Amino acid sequence: MNAVVDRNPGKKGRKFNDFLTYEDKTFNQYYLLPFRFIALNPRREILVNEIGDFLIVDKGTAEKIILKQLDSLADYELYNDLIANFFISKDKIPVLIDVLATRYRTKKSFLDHFTALHIFVITLRCEHTCHYCQVSRVSEDKNSFDMSKRHIDKGIELMMQSPNPHVTMEFQGGEALLAFDHIKYGVEKAKLAALTHNKEITFVICTNLAPITTEMLLYCKENSILISTSLDGPEFIHNKNRHKKGNDSHQLALKGIKLTREILGNDRVSALLTTSALSLDFPNEIVDEYFKLNFGSMFLRPISPFGFATRNEKKNKYNTDRFIEFYKKGLNRIINYNLNGSSFREDYATILLKKILTPFPVGYVDLQSPAGMINNVIVFNYDGKIYASDEARMLAEMSDFTFQLGHLDTSTYNEIFYSDLAVDITEAGINESLPGCSDCAFQTYCGADPVLCHSTQGNMYGHRPTNVFCQKNMAIIKHLFELMDSDPKILKLFNNWVRGN
Amino acid sequence: MLLKTKGKTSNITEPIVARVTRNRNSSSENQVLICEDYFVENNDFAAILTNLNANPIVFSQHFVHSIQSLSHLNEGDIIVINSDGVINTLYRANSHQNFLLATERCNSNCLMCSQPPRDREDIYYLHNLHRKLIPLIPKDCVELGITGGEPTLLGNLFYELLAMIQSELPDTDIHCLTNGRSFAWPNLANKLGAMKYDKLMLGIPLYSDFYQTHDYIVQAKDAFNQTIQGLYNLARNNLRIEIRIVLHQQSIPRLKKLAQYIYKNLPFVEHITFMGLEHQGYTPFNIDKLWIDPVDYMDDLTDAVTFLSDKDMNVSIYNSQLCLLPRELWQYSRKSISDWKNVYLDECQSCGAIAQCGGLFASGQKKHSAHIKGIQL
């Protein structure tokens, strides 16, 4: 039998070392890990590392760090924060570099499965004539503006070839419900195909709800189809923005929302806001409208500078500053609802905050690097033409076919998704390597948009200082940080907006 | 609660591991018969235990006599009788808080260790006990702990021990306390992962997001980096992990930052526990470096707990008293103190929440918050 042998009788174990014994390497010597920085305001600056973790510090801190003027005792707290959060390291290559690598892979894991969102422009017909609309046409000639069944079939075939096990089939218009037969045809075909290809499909219909009927909604319920609609605010804004014969767009939208909720459930219908020049003067009224209608969140979304939008300069060409002002006011209103005990999120902030406050990836198409077009979304137009994004299709409506990736009649999967054009677009959509983005503190939170750069600045790479995408995101991200830095209650609230995964 | 007693042995040269019974008719080689106020010879039992003085009796029977106390032993408890007459309870039939002591050795030397490590060669002795003990444990045993010292210091025997439990007690939840440092070596984590042991949960302490503070608290250089690497290697193998944080003067200042670190870098952990200090082992010796009245850290604790909970992470508070916790934290408080060392103070007797309260460690009678008082619900 093995006996227990006391090797060290007595109380030697009680010898404890002091804190400084556990300092690594040479006192005050450290190495820099990759991080970027920017001033938030005259007093504070923000440091952001490669995986999106941030520290808000007093101005001048970045300089001090880089000049190696930090003192582990005098700057005790900061020094510890910088090491714990992977800004500096005691070793040339940090011992925990695998943690950084895992974090980085996690943040970029939205790329793992490739294209998820497949937009089918099922018809171009519409009974609305919204002044900001980029694409819609009213037409009696049904055949020439509806997507043909042959093209729907081919679109589904391509969708089934996506490496992504979970795809979304989104029906857009025009007014998609005007071609409800085609939607049904697409849904049935896709469901069958999904069985053989072992894919999960989420179905979405984008509609202004004007033509919706109980029968349509029962079909949606039976097939778990989500409804996405447009709501621009209270009646006097909505009806001005969204022209319709009879001037009853708002009334029909509300009626449609109510009916949809009754049949599908509250969480199966969401609404999108388009901000027009008129909207800019009424942030509070617009927020209140969404709140009043019991939406859990709303998206303060700027108008896209495409299509008719840029043509109708008088109404729509407002500068980014005005939108930012609108956004801040609207967000403030939403925050106040929360501080008074309600639960009501702003979606754009939530997307950004998820990138800022969580270690997880975010699949939102417009804020991805590499950009979401092609590798996250593809658009099959009513006429069979294939585009890199919804915006690319709008551009084509203005006769600019730069981003046409192929045609449903002729192109194979590889010709569409791996063409030279696809490679060129992707190259221009990686903000890690774009001038002005590569050293930007907010790079990990932001994205790139080659289509927008092309349409507003003449080439896919763009010029950041004069770019509306850059201006908008810089201002909004900065604003979110300033809010979090100024009030712990708002920080807690923002953390709740992004709760869960 | 008494877990140890002593008598005088006869014919015992090797440790005997067996269940106790008071039923003379249920003889088996896996049982020892307790004879209170009488003595019999019965060679069908592994041994006979008696409180009588049977010194002059000469039998071939294994027996222990003149035992000071037998009343703490219940039908079905499993004990070890050592050749020197010491009888330790290894498994209590009526408790859900049984654990195996893997070794008293440890590669850390934490400032607040409640069971200070001893540099003794106990591994083979204890392993032999466990080999006899584990098959005797009832198959419906709900939960079994493995503790130390540092169990992974067993090396191959650690995996052997787990494999034995996995095959003998497949339905039992196993909670193994380890500092996780050994798993910085991927082959050790991979070996554990290969067991596909989904009843196994590893409880691993993390005291700071800053390496130097953690290393200082556990008194071991590079411990922080090893633990984090270990956690990653374990997660890669889909092992279940609980993070354990002891609350004291050294861990409190960065508590909220530690919570953020866990969420951002270790979002895969299944459970996070914040634990009150136990006034035991090294703690009294290091009390100046450790003591902070719990009421003085409640803001930090609330921040850390609610932050993690708001992120939908599973959080608990152990070893804390409800009268010290803000009401919003009550939902996280668990009655976690092992029954055999769980007490309440005189002040507690009038308390309306005593039934839900975790109470104190027995050692807490010597040192506890100055703010413990009965609550009117």
Automatic annotation (TrEMBL), chain A:
Segments forming domain Radical SAM core: 121-263
Cofactor: [4Fe-4S] cluster
GO MF entries: iron-sulfur cluster binding; metal ion binding; oxidoreductase activity
UniProt keywords, alphabetically: Iron, Iron-sulfur, Metal-binding, S-adenosyl-L-methionine
InterPro entries: Aldolase_TIM, rSAM, rSAM_paired_HxsB, rSAM_sf, Sulphatase_maturase_rSAM
TM spans (from-to): none
Protein name: His-Xaa-Ser system radical SAM maturase HxsB
Organism expressing this protein natively: Candidatus Pedobacter colombiensis
Lineage: Bacteria, Pseudomonadati, Bacteroidota, Sphingobacteriia, Sphingobacteriales
UniProtKB/TrEMBL annotation, chain B:
Record key words, sorted: Iron, Iron-sulfur, Metal-binding, S-adenosyl-L-methionine
Pfam families assigned: Radical_SAM
Domain of life: Bacteria
Protein name: His-Xaa-Ser system radical SAM maturase HxsC
PROSITE patterns (alphabetical): RADICAL_SAM
InterPro entries: Aldolase_TIM, Radical_SAM_PqqE_MftC-like, rSAM, rSAM_paired_HxsC, rSAM_sf
Cofactor list: [4Fe-4S] cluster
Domain Radical SAM core: start-end pairs: 92-318
CDD domains, A to Z: Radical_SAM
GO function terms (MF aspect): catalytic activity; iron-sulfur cluster binding; metal ion binding
SUPFAM superfamilies cross-referenced by the UniProt entry: Radical SAM enzymes (SSF102114)
